[in-house]
Amino acid sequence: MALYQCFPQGNLVVLKTVVGMAMAVATAIDALEINEIVGCIAGDDTIFIAVSESSTTTDVIKELKKLTKRRLILPVIVYYCP
């Protein structure tokens, strides 16, 4: 499983994944075409999610949590650290 942590940072949500899973998780998030998300940039274990100006990072984190509960982003467990 790709365990990740969410950190809101300005208009970005920073996700930490297990090593090697960031690209797969970012691709899944981009494919969902969530209105609040402008796009994702992924490294090896970190993803930066750019949040649209009309939304907040809290909105995006709530949406990601809903999607993981519905199992639309797998394999992922959300762990939120404010």
Quick recap:
This protein is an alpha+beta fold and 82 residues long. It has helices spanning 22-31, 57-69, and strands spanning 2-9, 12-16, 37-42, 46-51, 76-80.
- C-alpha geometry: globular
Helix/sheet category? alpha+beta
Task: Round the Cα radius of gyration to an integer and report it.
Answer: 11 Å
Helix content: 25-40%
Distance between the termini: 22 Å
Write out the strand line-up for the largest beta sheet, numbering strands in chain order.
3-4-2-1-5
Number of strands: 5
**Average residue-wise pLDDT:** 79
Tell me the β content: 35-45%
Biggest sheet architecture: 5 strands, mixed
Helix and strand element order: EEHEEHE
Low-confidence stretches: 74-82
Number of helices: 2
Summary keywords:
82 residues, alpha+beta, 2 helices, 5 strands, 37% strand, globular
Describe this structure as you would to a colleague.
The protein is an alpha+beta fold and 82 residues long. It starts with a strand and ends with a strand. 28% of the residues lie in helices and 37% in strands. It is globular. It has helices spanning 22-31, 57-69; strands at residues 2-9, 12-16, 37-42, 46-51, 76-80. Mean pLDDT is 79; it is low at 74-82. A five-stranded mixed β-sheet has the order 3-4-2-1-5, with helices on one face. It contains two helices and five strands; from the N terminus they run E-E-H-E-E-H-E. Strand 3 (37-42) and strand 4 (46-51) form a beta hairpin.
